[in-house]
Every structure is written in C-alpha cells, then in structure tokens.
Design goal:
Amidase signature (AS) enzymes, 15 helices, 36% helix, binds glutamine
C-alpha cells in the first residue's frame, strides 16, 4: 500500500489495525511525499525522522501510527519552537505542550514543524521570518495564515493532519484557502499549555485534516481538563465525536444564515454563489434555514484588533533578550540591549502590533480603546447566545475571496486585517466553529463555516460531515502532488 495525497486517517486506521501496513511504513510514505513536494511548497521549517520508540503504542490507540505536523508556535520537547521568528530562532522547547502530549498518548507520530506567520500574526504566511509557504493549488498564491504550513501540508497530502492555533481565524482561513477542513473548538476545550501565546483570551488549538471525520478524531484526542491551564474547561477527555457522524443532519435542525455576513458587500461573486449552493444543499438534507442578522458581528474585526494587539503587546514583553532566544551582543547597557534585541529579533508586523497594543493600553487611552472593546465583546457574546435560542447553528463565510497573490497586500496591512472579518468574531465570542470546503472559484478552493454554542462540537461535526458526504471536494488534490 502506498500513501496517496488523499489518504485519510480513517483509511489509515483500518489498514494499520489490520496490519496491512506498519506505522513505520506510514511515516516513511509521508516523509517521501514531504521530500518530493515540500521544496516547492515550503510548508515545513523542519522534518523529523521518527524513532522506533514513537511506534511502540498499542494498536487500538485512536491515532496509532498516524503522522502529522505541529505549527511552530506549539512546544514539542527537545525540538525547536520558533514562532517563525528570529527572536526564537534557536529556542528548544523543554517540554511538550499538553496538546502534543495528548496526541502522542493517542499514538500519533510527529513528522515536523510547520511554518506560520511570525508569532501567528498574519493571514498569508508572509510574515514568517524564514520562508513563504505557497498555496498548493497555485504556487503564486498565499496559503492563508497564520497556519500556512499546516494547511498547505494537509492540502498537498504531505500529512493527514496538522494542528495549529486559531486566535482570529488562523486555522479556518488557511484551511479554506487550501481546501481542507479546519476546526476552532470552544475556547478552553483544548489546553493552551505549551502554546506560545498571541492573545491568551482568544487563542485556541485547532486542527486541519482532509475530512470532517478525521478532524473529529484529532480534536477528540486532545480534549480535557488540564491542571497546567486554568482556562481549560473541566471536561473529561479524551472524547469520541465519531458517533455523531451519521451522514445525516439532526432531525429538526435549524441553521441560521447570518445575512449581514453572507450578503456583505465585498464578498466575491463566485464565493457567494457557492455559499448559496451550500445553503441549498442543507435544505436538501432536511435542515430548516432561517435568515437572521447579527448586527454586532460587524464590530468583530475592530474589537479583535484592540484585544489582539493589547494582549500581544503584553505577552511579547517576555522576549527581552534575557530569558529566551536571541540577544544582541554588542549593546552596552541593559536598556540598549533590550531595544536592540527586540528591534532586530522581531519583524515589522510584530513590532506594529506591540506599538498599537501598548497604545490602546496606555494611560489616557485604555478606557477609550481597550475597555470599550471589552464592552462590545460582551454585547457580541450576548447577541450570539440569544441567536442560539432560536437556531442550532449559524452559517458564515470564512474568507470573502479565494487566495490572493503572494505580495498583493504587502502595502495594505488594513486590508490584510480584514481577511479575518468573518472568522475573528467567533473567537471574540469564544464559541466553536468548523470550516468546510464547498467548491472552487477559478480553480481555487472556497469554504463556509458553521458556528455553534459553547461545546457544541459534536453537532457541528455532524452537520459538516452530512454536507461533506454530498460532494467529493475532499478527494480533490492539485494535479502536481497527485502521484
Ligand atoms: N489573521 C489573524 C491575525 O493576524 C489571525 C491570527 C490568528 O488566528 N493567530 O491576527
């Protein structure tokens, strides 16, 4: 059995359990693909050669022998974790993130570190200090971000799963632009211990896979309370979501189509057509479609801008040249060293966010900016909670348009920030969402997302899975990586 671009975790599990293939053969098959295609994609910052020890799990473990990739801002003991930043270029993690430890305990094999935007700040992968990952569907286009490497690697079939962090859309948007499934669970469903923080109150660990089934398996393996993260929900894990995946929607399911999102100005005409087709497909599956507006959603990007920058500036204060990573050697005084280290260690986007973040938190401005953002955040959450009294799930676009050309938004940081317009409101309200491919515009993938109330992952996976069964988007791969 050879590993193909479209091989799924579900298929691998059956082959591994029947001993038709060994975990070593699976890992070698994917490493062969990585070596054949990653030269062009630049999805990985580093590939690992798994040791025999990693294959010693019991064969009934949920991810026994299934290899995957880890975004470069999640700690793996003994491996570098650089956040794609020069300031952490040589930082080696002294421990495993809880997410990584749980995947290992579930039998998974780690194949490498995936490239991302620097400190997960960006929507295109272009802020990485090391390389620009390409979109496998068109190498002149961005894969989305910040989980650029994770998305490109799964889309090209270099790994069957990858994990990343989603603070404002970083799992769902690149998943959408690369044509794979991307999940952002409820805030706290998966421990953040060992995830290098961007904005701690919004950061979630999320998963990319080819199919909804595979996604549910990987998310489930990481669920559970964690004494090392006080914001992790007190849930008993790991969790098996697969019984939800019946291929049908829940009887009486009501989906709210968010009109001010789906009919927003600025959505590409081709994308809009595919969103409308997906809504029609849900009617066909028996769901009741209700149109509703969520007026506060339109403040999501502004609120996200403030909270993200404020928390990023605070979290990144620890990179001072003393405790971690890079240090400028020539400075004569401590403050000079601090300034030079941070000036040379951080890229432009990171510096821009530290400046804005400190500004919105500063005396005289904190009330106007940061505190009002927090007030609007509470209003948004109340509006979403109220919406879930009349519908089960909400239907949103992910990205307003398919992937753009590399470099196209270089001089337009505001337009880049608006890439998150439909994703970041969901982080602001802390609820779960899954994005699912729903077709192609001019050869580039497009997706929608379903959002549910807190801890409704089972229902979201069920509803996404039912849609996925009507199509064969997940079997599509770019021609050049097919072999
Ligand atoms: N594009 C968003 C940003 O730059 C998303 C980041 C994220 O989710 N990590 O802030």
């Amino acid at each position: 059995m050879t590993i193909h671009a479209t091989t799924t975790i579900k298929e691998l599990r059956e082959l591994l359990r029947a001993k038709e293939i060994s975990p070593r053969e699976v890992a070698d098959g994917y490493l062969r693909r990585c070596k054949a295609y990653d030269g062009k994609l630049e999805a990985f910052l580093e590939l690992y050669e798994p040791s025999a020890l990693e294959f010693s799990h019991a064969d009934h473990a949920p991810l026994y022998g299934i290899p995957g990739a880890i975004k470069d801002n999640i700690c793996q003991k003994g491996h570098k974790a650089t956040c794609a930043s020069k300031i952490l270029e040589n930082f080696v993690a002294p421990y495993d993130a809880t997410s990584v430890a749980r995947l290992k305990a579930a039998g998974a094999t780690m194949l490498g570190r995936a490239n991302c935007d620097e400190f997960a700040m960006g929507s295109s992968g272009e802020t990485s200090a090391f390389q620009k990952t390409k979109n496998p569907w068109d190498l002149t286009r961005v894969p989305g971000g910040s989980c650029s490497g994770s998305a490109a690697a799964v889309a090209a079939g270099l790994v069957p799963w990858a994990i990343g962090s989603d603070t404002g859309g970083s799992v769902r948007q690149p998943a959408a632009l690369c044509g794979v499934v991307g999940s952002k669970p409820t805030y706290g469903l998966i421990s953040r211990y060992g995830l290098i923080a961007l904005a701690s109150s919004l950061d979630t660990i999320g998963v990319m896979t080819r199919t909804v089934y595979d996604n549910a398996v990987v998310v489930g393996a990481m669920v559970g309370a964690d004494g090392k993260d006080s914001t992790a929900l007190p849930l008993q894990g790991p969790y098996d979501y697969t019984p939800y995946l019946t291929g049908k929607v829940k009887p009486g399911l009501k989906i709210g189509v968010v009109t001010n999102a789906v009919h927003a100005k600025g959505i590409d005409a081709g994308v809009k057509k595919l969103l409308e087709q997906a809504i029609a497909d849900y009617k066909h599956l028996g769901a009741q479609i209700v149109e509703l507006a969520l007026p506060t959603m339109d403040y999501g990007a502004a609120v996200y801008f403030m909270i993200n920058r404020a928390e990023a500036a605070s979290n990144l204060a620890r990179f001072d040249g003393v405790r971690y990573g890079y240090r400028d050697k020539d400075a004569e005084t401590l403050s000079d060293m601090y300034e030079k280290t941070r000036g040379a260690g951080f890229g432009r986007e990171v510096i821009r966010r530290i400046l804005t973040g400190n500004y919105v938190l500063s005396v005289g401005h904190a009330e106007q900016y940061y505190a009002s953002a927090c007030t609007v955040q509470r209003m948004m959450r109340a509006e979403f909670v109220a919406a879930f009294k009349s519908v089960d799930l909400l239907f949103f676009p992910v990205s307003p348009a398919p992937a753009f050309k590399i470099g196209a938004l270089d001089n337009d940081p505001l337009q880049m920030a608006l890439e998150d317009y439909f994703t970041c409101p969901i982080n602001i309200v802390k609820m779960p969402a899954v994005s699912v491919p729903c077709g192609f515009v001019d050869g580039m993938p497009v997706a929608f997302q379903l959002v549910g109330p807190d801890c409704s992952e089972g229902l979201i996976f069920q509803t996404c899975h039912a849609y996925e069964q009507m199509h064969d988007w997940y079997k599509q791969v770019p021609e050049w990586v097919r072999a």
